[in-house]
Amino acid sequence: MDLEKLLSDRLATAFAAVAGGPVDPLVRRSPRADFQSDAPLALARRLGRPPRDIAAAVLEHAVLDDVCVSAEVSGPGFLNLTIADRTLADLVAGLAADARLGVPLAAAPQTVVVDYSAPNVAKEMHVGHLRSTVIGDAAVRLLDWLGHRVVRVNHLGDWGTPFGMLIAHLADLGEAEAAHELSMGDLDGFYRAARVKFDADEAFRERSRLRVVALQGGDERTLRLWRLLVEQSERYFLTVYDLLDVTLSEDDFRGESAYNDLLPGIVDDLDRLGLLVSSGGADCVFPPGFTGRHGEALPLIVRKSDGGYGYPATDLAALRQRSGELGATRLLYVVGLPQRQHFAMVFAVAQAAGWLCPPVRAEHLGFGSILGADGRMLRSRTGESVKLVGLLEEAVARATDLARSRNPELDAEAAAEIGRAVGIGAVKYADLSTDRRKDYVLDWERMLSLDGNTAPYLQYAYARIRSVFRRAGTEARRDAPIVLAQPAERALTVELLGFGAVVTEVERSLDFHQLAGYLHRLATAFNAFYERCPVLRAPDGLRESRLLLAELTARTLRQGLHLLGIRTLERM
């Protein structure tokens, strides 16, 4: 059982008896004991009693003798709880027998749609796509492991007026030449060439406008050229996802074009519901509570004055399709924080229209930016966005060089395997170990360090454990009695028992820095245990116990890192 939940359940009954109603015990880890409850301080004003008196009364009602070796009032009114060694040993023995490490499947599985990555057709993925892809993939992995039905949606930008320009350029080149050029992966070069012609050539601009009309009208040749653009772009995107080691596949692509036929119905329904307002020739909805700089009401433009549809209409159509046709009850949008207001307005309009009602809920998982060493948005030397492939290849190259410098005996294949796992893992972990709402600085030296809160530190801890078992020549006995002879063993056990509580919280919040922080604490506790508690040289009973603690640590690290999308290595 989850140790934190066990204590919370026991204390909740006692707090309810003292307060006369439900109270969250606010149990958390403490540097002064194993756990601490802050609830007496929060209750003091409500009950009009000193917090120390409340804490003492709670202890009188609490049934803790079979769990805690010590439960006492501390400071201004904290409850400090120290767990009995026997309790720790029994609980960790339960973990050893559980393939899921104490983390149960969701009691009420949901259908969850995760909208993430979302590159644009005929444009290369840049560093701005990294966070959405990495955070979204972690969400997919976690929710899938917990037993939810997860639907990945890669919402490609594959429709709109720029495609007239791109299709006209493709037609000028010829399908065979264009396919060859696109297959080389230089999507940005193709796009730039089309843009140069569009800006300089009035005849080309006119052909581009006619291609937009033909595309929207369903002209077969124009659609064929458009599909060529989409297919070649998708092939390129899949190579990036393979390098980044994420779970997105060709089955997950769903472009804006997929919703095109639904857009007139969105406008008609909003009009029928009395939500549509004509403003400046455009069809808009003014959701309450959204105002501009000068207090004016802000519109969500559903259909533009030229009759075209923008992102809001497409997002509304997608939301309705996901909650209706797919039956999803949790909709996750992994998109940068600058789009916060856009999604808030889309969700507000969807609620007003009755398309977003309980139990369906939509969440914008916003995130900050990746910065360079100068504290500004990360850019290439020429001032352009850094290409994602280039960044990932640099990470792998740096990690491979480090692996070779640490172990010159590595053959090329082993060095490449370590380099890829460590380099890509370092990039992902730097992102996921940061509160997603904050910006972070891309610092290669820190990211690839074997010390500190980094992926290589965690990967090395796992590899170190596997080396113990290679030397031992055996695996741990899952039924071995747990013996807590040293403080470092006890500290490691307490950390191992915290995995379930962290996963449960991250399922709710999708704040993956909490899981990363937990894994770092676990690896740190193991390294202290490893230094202070000999494993292979310990007497038989203690040796079996320590091997089991080491194996549980390895299993937890491997599972936790897998949820973050980071590979573990048997050797480093």
UniProtKB/TrEMBL annotation:
> In which broad location class does this protein mainly occur, judging by the first location in its UniProt entry?
cytoplasm
Q: Annotated Gene Ontology MF terms?
A: arginine-tRNA ligase activity
Q: So what does this thing catalyse?
A: tRNA(Arg) + L-arginine + ATP = L-arginyl-tRNA(Arg) + AMP + diphosphate
On whether Oxidoreductase is a keyword of this UniProt record, the answer is no
Q: What is the lineage of its organism?
A: Bacteria, Bacillati, Actinomycetota, Actinomycetes, Micromonosporales
Tell me the protein family, please: Belongs to the class-I aminoacyl-tRNA synthetase family.
Which HAMAP family does the record cross-reference, listed alphabetically?
Arg_tRNA_synth (MF_00123)
Name listed for the protein in its UniProt record: Arginine--tRNA ligase
Respond yes or no to whether keyword Ligase is given for this record.
yes
Every copy of the DALR anticodon binding domain together lies at 458-572
Q: Which organism is it from?
A: Micromonospora zamorensis
Keyword set, alphabetical order: Aminoacyl-tRNA synthetase, ATP-binding, Cytoplasm, Ligase, Nucleotide-binding, Protein biosynthesis
Q: What is said about its interaction partners and assembly?
A: Monomer.
Q: Where in the cell is it found?
A: Cytoplasm
